[in-house]
Design brief:
By secondary structure, the chain is of the alpha/beta class. The chain has 14 helices and 20 strands. The strands form seven sheets. The protein has an eight-stranded mixed beta sheet with strand order 15-12-16-1-17-18-8-19. It has a two-stranded antiparallel ribbon with strand order 2-3. The longest helix has 23 residues, at about 5-25.
Length: about 450
């Protein structure tokens, strides 16, 4: 969805969003950068984790993928803004429609914590009645359920922000988005040039009128790893972006990385190379793995390869020499517009956002366990920081709970890995033609 189309689509609801946010704005705390500190290495892990892998999928809420999961907080129905009870309907991953999912539509859906404004979200494409009120049937989600049942599923995982995918991808590398809102109108970063801009996020959770180029210098986890002599890799797509070409990477917005040595060394395309790298004995201290459009779980991409893609990456690591020293976090960047009944806590001007799934996979992860501890994207950063003795980056990772205490048992003998069945294996992803579509352009 282009920048212009997006604002055209939501213009009629912006005024309503501003009204809905007014009540919350008076209570919105000022955003300040805390005094960051370098923590001691995690005493719980005792140095057993040497590799952290972050697999990020696209645009799915917790209830949408895990409705009915035993022990998790899910629901089979929701309420719309008119007070009508709506039974959630099964909708496949390859649904030919996309739901708006930015700070404006968050405000509408959230409705001051009532969670009954999802019907006000703009929908583009061929959609059924009540398109936001849906879940993905088990015929497609079973691989995700299989991973969760062997390891840990967290049902109180929220995004650290209230906005869309571009902002979310900044949070998973830096714990912040430089105070920005929405998404750039071209390439996701410096390659878009001076006209590729984003507005500021105001204290009342609305986009402001202060625009800057989407190319800035803020500290990232990659920078901290470099300084500590640790390695990192970000596996992603080459895409035909709005400006004609590009690499779909959150690091494209980080000026000193885009134009520094890390760009050629640590930003890897295509993302399927992670499968061959692991097989050949290469796995960085921290690894980010991004999907293609077809494998992203993003509605409107027309693909349902996501569960098989994630399973293939997990199997590759599980069957490698790295298994006994690795923690894998599978999560989704934001809610994608799908209905969820759990209201996120209001922590600051930019968070928390709606629930997304988090699956924690490791030889030290608990088995068939549902964690009800409150997590956010900053929790994954905090876990990685603790393992390698790195400083906090921003408010999100400073305040967040680490999964180390509840999702892991570092006193147990490392569990042997058993590979998961998948309808598409590594060979498919290594040899399929490139998918140059952006998994999400917002």
């Amino acid at each position: 969805m282009t920048y212009l189309r997006r604002f055209t689509a939501v213009a009629s609801t912006l005024a309503a969003a501003l009204l809905l946010s007014a009540a919350a704005s008076s209570a919105a705390p000022p955003w300040t950068v805390p005094n960051l500190r370098i923590p001691l290495p995690s005493q719980n892990a005792q140095g057993k984790i040497k590799h952290v892998v972050i697999i990020m999928q696209e645009n799915r809420g917790f209830n949408n993928l895990f409705m009915g999961y035993p022990g998790a907080d899910t629901t089979t129905y929701g309420y719309n803004s008119s007070g009508n009870k709506i039974t959630l309907q099964p909708v496949l991953l390859e649904a030919p429609y996309d739901i708006e999912h930015d700070v404006i539509t968050f405000t509408l859906a959230y409705n001051n914590g009532k969670m009954n404004g999802f019907d006000k979200e703009y929908v583009g494409g061929s959609a059924p009645a009540n398109p936001q009120f849906a879940y993905v049937p088990r015929t497609e989600t079973q691989p995700y359920w299989n991973l969760a049942s062997q390891y840990v599923l967290a049902d109180r995982m929220f995004t650290s922000h209230v906005d869309d995918s571009f902002i979310s991808h900044q949070y998973i590398i830096a714990g912040q988005a430089n105070g920005r809102a929405l998404y750039p109108n071209g390439t996701w970063g410096c390659d878009g040039g001076p006209s590729d801009t984003t507005p500021n996020m105001q204290p009342n959770r609305t986009p402001g009128n202060s625009y800057i180029q989407t190319c800035w210098d803020i500290p990232t986890l990659g920078d901290e790893l470099d300084a500590a002599g640790r390695t990192w890799r970000y596996y992603t797509s080459t895409v035909f972006a709005n400006d004609g070409s590009g690499i779909w990477s959150a690091y494209d917005a980080i000026n000193h990385i885009r134009y520094g040595k890390d760009w050629a060394k640590d930003v890897i395309t295509p993302q399927s190379q992670v499968l061959s790298d692991v097989a050949n004995g290469t796995l960085a201290s921290v690894t980010w793995v991004m999907p293609t459009c077809a494998a992203s779980d993003h509605a409107g991409c027309g693909g349902n390869q996501g569960p098989a893609w994630v399973t293939s990456v997990v199997n590759a690591i599980g069957e490698s020499k790295f298994w006994n020293s690795t923690a894998i976090f599978v999560t989704w960047d934001e809610w994608g517009g799908w209905y969820d009944h759990v209201a996120p806590p209001y922590l600051d001007y930019d968070g928390l956002g709606f629930r997304v799934p988090l699956i924690v996979i490791s030889p030290y992860a608990k088995q068939n366990y549902v964690s009800h501890v409150q997590y956010e994207q900053g929790s994954i950063l905090r876990f990685a920081e603790d393992q390698f003795g790195l400083a906090r980056l921003a408010p999100a990772d400073t305040r967040a709970n680490s999964p180390a205490a509840d999702a892991f048992d570092f006193t147990q003998t490392p569990r042997k890995f058993s590979p998961f069945a998948s309808r598409l294996g590594p060979s498919y992803f290594l040899h399929t033609p490139p998918d140059h579509r952006m998994p999400d352009d917002e």
